[in-house]
Amino acid sequence: MNTLKTALILFFAITITACSGTRSVTTPLTDREMVVDGSLSGWSLDESVIERTDIANYYATHDNNFLYLFIDVQSPGHNNAMRQSGFIIYISDNEDNRKQTGIAFPSGSFNLLRENPGAYNSFVNDPEWGQNPRNRELLQNLEEDIFDRIMVVEQSSSGTDRGFINRDQLQIDGIQIAAEEGRRMMSIELRVPLNQSSIYNIHGDRIWVGFEIDPPNFRRQDNSNQMQQQQRYGGQRRASQSADNRRSNIRQRMGQFERWYRLDLGQ
What we know:
This protein has helices at residues 2-9, 45-48, 76-85, 109-112, 117-125, 133-143, 167-172, 225-232, 236-253; strands spanning 22-27, 49-52, 56-62, 66-73, 88-92, 101-104, 149-156, 159-166, 176-179, 187-193, 206-213, 257-265. The chain is an alpha+beta fold. It has a seven-stranded mixed beta sheet with strand order 1-12-11-5-6-7-8. A five-stranded antiparallel beta sheet has the order 2-3-4-10-9. A hairpin with a 3-residue loop joins strand 3 (56-62) and strand 4 (66-73).
């Protein structure tokens, strides 16, 4: 795949868009039967739009029983980044714990490597990992499953836990999610119960919704000759800061992104 070669050299022509505050939007009540199929054809776009950006257009509505979200991706670079690093959707009725639970859809080929901890550890640490044809083939095969496997993200004071489930398991939880996979730019549609029955456990008429692309935290350059020399001559702190800056720059070039909205559910 063309995107695979781009991913392995770790450079995307993407400018990071950081979370610069939370945008508050009143989300309209709909009386339409919303079919979750990844298509905007059933949406009243002008009424349900949250925001239109260069990265994606965001829409939301509800019917008192379910919250509906739609993400219509506009940026080719971020479209590729989502396929590789995943696209996490956080939903919460508590601002302080708004990043407690999220699901990644697509899960991202890099994230699917996490199901094999040994392979993922080598991926983020070994600078020659991507030169192995078998590893390139592995990533290419994993990309075929990014819409079928869902990554569930749970964050707590002790750290971040990630688990994987099949897409149809979400339906048991009352959640429906779909994408128009054949398009050049992906679109994502999501339905979540508003009665605390899903993994999001939400209720009430004020909800925080966040979208994130969280690339791997590569540590491939931490053992460079430059860093070793800095440590040898008393520059350990500077070397550590330099390594952190390199990793941060790589993540930015790979499309690191976070955006938040507060939705007030209208009647």
